[in-house]
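Quick start: read one record
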Amino acid sequence: MLACYLDDSGKDPQNPITTVAGYLAREDAWQAFETEVEPIFTEKKVSILHARDLHATDGDFKGWTMIQKQAFVARICNVAAGKVLMGVSMSAHKGKYEEHSIDRAQGAQPRRTVTPYVFCFQVVVDWLLRDIRVGRLVNTEGIKLILETGHENNAQAEQEFEVVRKRYNLQNVLHSISFVPKNHCRAIQLADMIAFYSRRDGVSYLKAIEEQREKYDQDTVLKSLLEIAPHRAFVATGFHDREP
């Protein structure tokens, strides 16, 4: 059985995009990851890895140098490498998405639109089912989705998950969806990191486009996270309905 841990970033109003991101691995690989990575947290006296605290050098990371933070993340990534099959990160420009939602609601045939968070979740599920690298494994071995608790739209995400299962007869593939707190395991904290840093990277990408710059600096922590496994990522800024 495969398990994909997912977290979100950017739900606060000041963030232009929202992101759903995480990592996919077999359940036994996740168990090995938890066992092997825990001594690193114990050594560094980090109780819970909050990406926001890591970035701001706050909480358990107060007083850390940039080199210390980068080395800590690199050690975690080294444990995950070889165990994780793929990373995913889907982002949506909230303003553009809301504009599209209003257009749909005012159209001749109004259609229900999910929130940007659930839209990103839906795209990630579609990737997992169809990706050329892991799609066959997912459809053969089945998958569990584990998201962090606390998001106000988790109920809608669960509802859409069940709709896809029944509509496409995927009960034997999409086994379950569940929600866990941040302190539940290191896997959900790893998902928190890739969601936080890929969301920040998406904002930098959009800013570079607005300023007509071809390049922008990528965070060193994100570079380490991207080295764990192949990643599939996208920042959506335009939205169009598919033909039925």
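Strands lie at 2-9, 17-26, 84-93, 143-148, 174-180, 231-236.
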